[in-house]
Design goal:
single chain; 50% helix; elongated
Length: 852
C-alpha cells in the first residue's frame, strides 16, 4: 500500500470526494482516505503523478509519504537504513498536531473582536449598556461599526470561505460550504439592511430605521464563524490525542547506537547502523536495533513492545529488539534487523497502515456523507421558500435557512468510525496486540469459533519433565543422574527436557561409553561397567521386568497426555520419567474466558486421539480434532467455517495456510515471520490470554463506533427539523443561528471525546463479558460425495497432485485422496458432471476406473 498525505480536507464529504476521484484513476485497485490522519492509502499499479493529479483536480492537495517498502533497510544497506530512519522522523512529524495552535490563535483574535461586536449589537440594544456619545443616536455609525467588526472576523476565518466556495466550484460542497453559506448569507442580508436603513434615515423615516435595525444579523455571521472555530479547535485537540499511542511508540526509537569497529566503540546515528554490525548496550540504555546477543547476559524490559512489565532474561544466542531497555548487564550484540525491518518499525507501520484503512461499518457513514451537504443546502433553500410562502418576513425565513446550514454536521458522521479505530488500535499496540487493518479490529469481536493450534499456542512448545517415579530402593536423584548421563548424547527433543531439569538441579554430568541410539526404540550406553537403557515400554520390557504398579502409573501418565520414558541398569528397571509439552499457565483461563464470551473453542493437533483428549481436557476446550497433519489444518478450518465465523490461532509455518483461510488469523508473536505475515492480528506476547483480550478490544471499539454513529445520525435527525422551524407552528420553537453553530461545534467534539474513552478500557477485565447473539446459521448447502477409483497413484506426491487439481474446481469443497486405496472421495457443493471430474484427473496422467 502506497500512502499519501492529503491537504485541504475539512469534513467527511471531502474525504469521500477524494476517495471517489482517486478510485477512478486507471490502475487503482483500492483507495482509502482517513480524515482523522489526513492520509490516503492506495493499492494498485497507478503512477503517483496520476494519483496526485486526480486529488488536485478534485480541489485538494496530495504528496507521497516519504517511506520505502518493508524490508528496505536490510536489503539496500546504509542508504536505505537512513531513509527508514528519516521516514520514522517524517511519520512522527506527520502526526504532530499543527492545527490546534493555529486554530487557537484564530479563536483568540476572533473572540476579541466578537466581544466588542456583541457589546455594541446586543449589550447596547438589549440592555442599554453605554456607548460613546458619537454612537448614541447615530444608528448608521453603529451599523457601520458592526459591519467593520464582522468583516475583520470574516477575514480572520477566511479559510471557511476559501475552502467552502472552492468545494462549491468543484461541485463537491463540504462542511465549510455550509458555514460559508450560512455566515455569508447573514452578512449579505445585514449589509442590505444597513443600506436600506441609511436610505430611511436620509428620508427621515425613523420607524423604518428602527425596523431595519432589528434586521441586522452581523453578530450571527461573526458568532457562527467563532463558534465553529471553537468546535474545530476542540476537535483538532481531541484528534491529536487519538494518535498519542502511536506517537509514544515513535518516541521510543533510539537516536544513537554504540557500534564496535576494529575493537573501538563509536557512538553513531541510528541510521548508520547496518545489518551485521556489532553493537554494545550498557545497563539503563535502550537497545538501538533488533539483534542477537553474542556476549553477556541481562534482564531486558520489553514493556514498550509487549506491554509486559516483568523483565525478560537474555543470554548468549537470545534475540533482542529495538526500543527495549537493558536493565542490568552489559551485552554485546550483532544487528540482525535495522531501519524499517525492526520490530518497532513494523509495529508502527502496522498501526499506521491500519489507520489508513477503512472498517466496513464506515462505508454507511461515507455514503451518507457523500450526499449530505448537497441535501442540506437543498433543505435550507426549501425552508426559506416555504416560510416566505407562509407569509413570514425575509429576516425570519433567512434565519431558519441559515440555522439549517450551520447546525448540520457531516463531520460527526465522518469521524464516528476512524477516531474509534485509531484509539482502539493504539490501545491494542500498547498492550502488545496488533490489529493489522481496521477490518481486523472490527471483525475480531464477531468470531463464533476459535481454533487453537496445540503446540506453541496452548502448550509451551518445549517438553518438560513432569513426573519422576523411581522403583523401590532407588532415589529420585539417582534415577535422574542415570537418565542425564544417557540422554546427554541424544538428539531427541524429549532428551532436552531431562537435560534441562538435571542442569537446574546441578547434577553431575557423568560420561558414558558405547553409546547407541536405536531409532523408534531407545538408547543404550555403558556407565561404570553397567549397561544403561532408556526408551519406551516395549524396548525396556525386552531386558527388564516392569512391576505392575509402574505399568499402571505409566498408563495413567499416558492418559494425561504425558510420554513415559523407562530406564534400566543392567537387567533391572530403575524407574520412569514422564515428559510432556506442558500447557501454558494461562491457557485454561484463556479458554474459559473465550467460552464465557459464547465462543466455541476447538483444539487442533497432530497427536493421537488419547493424548489429544488428555491435553484438551486440561485446557478445557469444547472440541478436540486430533491426527491433523500439518497440511490438513486449512481443510479443517474450511469445514469449521460452515458452522460460523472462525478465528485461527497459530505460530508455525504450517499454520500459515489455516491463518489465511480463517475469517480472522491470529498469530502468536513468538512464532515465525511467515505465520505473522499471514495473520490479521499479531499477539506480541506469546500469551493465549491475549486472544480474549483482543476480542474484548474489538467489541468495545465496535460498541463505541455504534454509539458515535447513533449520536451523529440522531443529532442531525433532531437538529435539522428544529432549525428549519418545523415545530414553530405547534410549540413556537425556533432556533437562533448562533445556537445552531454552537450545537454543530459540540457535535464533532462529543464524537471524538467519546472515542477517547477507549483509552481507559481494561481489555483483561472479564466482568463485562457477554455472549454474542448467535448469527443465523448459514443455509445448509446441499452437499454430495462421489468416490472416484483412480489408477496410477504411487506416493504422497501423487495424492497431493490429484487433491490439488480436484479442489481447484469451484464445485468441489474437499477431496480426500489415498494412493494406498486408489480412491478420491470428493465432496461437492453443487452439481458437477462425472465427465468433468474424470477429465480433471486424467489431465494429470492418472486413469479413472469408475465414479460412484
Amino acid at each position: 500500500m502506497e500512502q499519501y498525505t492529503v491537504t485541504g480536507m475539512s469534513c467527511a464529504a471531502c474525504s469521500a470526494r477524494v476517495e471517489k476521484a482517486v478510485s477512478k484513476v486507471p490502475g487503482v485497485t483500492s483507495c482509502s482516505v482517513s480524515l482523522l490522519t489526513n492520509s490516503m492509502g492506495v493499492e494498485g499499479s497507478a503512477a503517483a503523478e496520476a494519483i496526485i493529479a486526480a486529488v488536485e483536480q478534485a480541489g485538494y492537495g496530495a504528496q507521497p509519504k516519504g517511506r520505502g517498502g518493508a524490508g528496505a533497510g536490510s536489503a539496500a544497506g546504509a542508504e536505505n537504513t537512513g531513509a527508514a530512519s528519516r521516514s520514522m522522523a517524517g511519520a512522527e512529524d506527520a502526526l504532530k498536531d499543527r492545527d490546534t495552535p493555529v486554530l487557537k490563535r484564530r479563536l483568540l483574535t476572533s473572540v476579541g473582536f466578537l466581544a466588542v461586536l456583541m457589546y455594541v449589537s446586543m449589550g447596547h440594544m438589549m440592555w442599554n449598556w453605554p456607548l460613546p456619545a458619537f454612537f448614541e443616536n447615530n444608528h448608521v455609525a453603529m451599523g457601520l461599526l458592526q459591519l467593520l467588526l464582522t468583516v475583520i472576523i470574516m477575514v480572520i476565518n477566511q479559510k471557511f470561505f476559501i475552502s467552502g466556495f472552492r468545494g462549491l466550484i468543484h461541485r463537491a460542497p463540504n462542511m465549510d460550504t455550509l458555514v460559508a453559506l450560512g455566515s455569508g448569507a447573514s452578512f449579505v442580508y445585514s449589509t442590505y439592511a444597513l443600506f436600506a436603513m441609511t436610505d430611511a434615515q436620509v428620508k427621515g423615516d425613523m420607524a423604518g430605521v428602527m425596523a431595519y435595525m432589528h434586521e441586522f444579523y452581523f453578530e450571527s455571521a461573526a458568532m457562527i464563524l467563532t463558534l465553529i472555530t471553537v468546535g474545530k479547535m476542540l476537535e483538532a485537540h481531541s484528534k491529536g490525542k487519538t494518535t498519542d499511542a502511536l506517537k509514544s511508540l515513535m518516541k521510543l526509537a533510539p537516536k544513537t547506537a554504540v557500534v564496535v569497529k576494529d575493537g573501538v566503540e563509536t557512538t553513531v546515528s541510528i541510521d548508520q547502523v547496518q545489518k551485521g554490525d556489532i553493537f554494545v548496550v550498557r545497563p539503563g540504555e535502550n537497545i538501538p536495533v533488533d539483534g542477537i546477543v553474542l556476549e553477556g547476559s541481562s534482564a531486558v524490559n520489553e514493556s514498550a513492545l509487549t506491554g509486559e512489565s516483568i523483565p525478560v532474561d537474555k543470554a548468549e544466542g537470545d534475540k533482542v529488539s529495538a526500543a527495549t531497555m537493558n536493565q542490568s548487564g552489559f551485552i554485546r550484540c550483532q544487528a540482525t534487523r535495522v531501519g524499517e525491518d525492526t520490530t518497532l518499525s513494523q509495529i508502527i507501520q502496522m498501526v499506521s497502515d491500519a489507520a489508513a484503512t477503512k472498517a466496513p461499518i464506515a462505508k454507511v457513514a461515507d455514503k451518507v456523507s457523500g450526499v449530505f451537504v448537497p441535501v442540506v443546502i437543498t433543505i435550507a433553500f426549501v425552508t426559506i421558500l416555504v416560510w416566505l410562502a407562509a407569509g413570514q418576513t425575509i429576516g425570519f425565513a433567512l434565519a431558519r435557512g441559515i440555522s439549517v446550514l450551520v447546525i448540520s454536521c457531516p463531520c460527526a458522521l465522518g469521524l464516528a468510525t476512524p477516531v474509534a479505530i485509531m484509539v482502539g488500535n493504539g490501545m491494542g499496540a500498547k498492550n502488545g496486540i496488533m490489529f493489522k487493518t481496521a477490518v481486523s479490529l472490527e471483525e475480531t469481536g464477531k468470531m463464533e469459533i476459535v481454533a487453537l493450534d496445540k503446540t506453541g499456542t496452548i502448550t509451551s512448545g518445549e517438553p518438560k519433565v513432569t513426573d519422576i517415579i523411581p522403583v523401590e530402593g532407588i532415589r529420585e536423584e539417582d534415577l535422574l543422574t542415570a537418565a542425564y548421563a544417557l540422554e546427554r548424547k541424544s538428539e531427541h527433543p524429549l532428551a532436552r527436557a531431562i537435560l534441562t531439569m538435571a542442569e537446574e538441579k546441578q547434577l553431575e554430568a557423568r560420561e558414558v561409553s558405547d553409546f547407541q541410539a536405536l531409532p523408534g526404540n531407545g538408547l543404550t550406553a555403558v556407565l561404570d561397567g553397567a549397561i544403561l537403557r532408556g526408551g519406551n515400554r516395549t524396548f525396556i520390557s525386552r531386558y527388564s521386568k516392569i512391576p505392575v504398579e509402574i505399568l499402571s502409573a505409566a498408563e495413567t501418565l499416558a492418559e494425561n497426555g504425558k510420554t513415559p520414558l523407562f530406564f534400566s541398569r543392567q537387567d533391572r528397571l530403575i524407574g520412569v520419567i514422564a515428559v510432556a509439552d506442558v500447557i501454558k499457565e494461562d491457557s485454561p483461563q484463556a479458554v474459559k474466558e473465550l467460552q464465557n464470551m459464547g465462543i466455541h473453542v476447538v483444539m487442533l493437533t497432530g497427536d493421537n486421539e488419547k493424548t489429544a483428549r488428555a491435553i484438551g481436557k486440561q485446557a478445557g476446550v469444547d472440541e478436540v480434532i486430533a491426527g491433523v497433519l500439518p497440511d490438513g489444518k486449512e481443510a479443517v478450518i474450511r469445514r469449521l467455517k460452515e458452522k460460523g465465523k472462525v478465528a485461527m490461532v497459530g505460530d508455525g509455518i504450517n499454520d500459515a495456510p489455516a491463518l489465511t483461510r480463517a475469517d480472522m488469523g491470529i498469530a502468536i508473536g513468538a512464532g515465525t515471520d511467515i505465520a505473522i505475515d499471514a495473520a490479521d492480528v499479531v499477539l506480541m506476547k506469546s500469551r493465549l490470554s491475549d486472544v480474549p483480550a483482543a476480542i474484548r478490544m474489538s467489541r468495545a471499539t465496535l460498541t463505541n463506533i455504534h454509539e458515535n454513529l447513533f449520536w451523529a445520525f440522531f443529532y442531525n435527525a433532531v437538529g435539522i427539523p428544529l432549525a428549519a422551524g418545523l415545530w414553530y407552528p405547534i410549540f413556537g420553537w425556533k432556533l437562533n443561528p448562533m445556537f445552531g453553530a454552537a450545537a454543530m461545534s459540540l457535535s464533532s467534539f462529543c464524537v471524538v471525546t467519546n472515542a477517547l474513552r477507549l483509552n481507559w478500557f481494561n481489555m483483561h477485565d472479564t466482568k463485562k463479558d457477554k455472549k454474542l447473539r448467535k448469527s443465523k446459521k448459514k443455509k445448509e448447502s446441499k452437499t454430495m460425495t462421489k468416490t472416484m477409483k483412480i489408477e496410477g497413484m504411487m506416493c504422497g506426491h501423487c495424492e497431493a497432485r490429484v487433491k490439488k487439481c480436484l479442489e481447484a474446481l469451484p464445485e468441489v469443497s474437499e477431496a480426500v485422496v489415498s494412493h494406498e486405496a486408489g480412491t478420491a472421495v470428493v465432496t461437492l457443493s453443487a452439481e458437477l458432471a462425472d465427465d468433468v471430474l474424470k477429465k480433471t484427473v486424467e489431465d494429470q496422467d492418472y486413469k479413472v476406473i469408475s465414479i460412484q
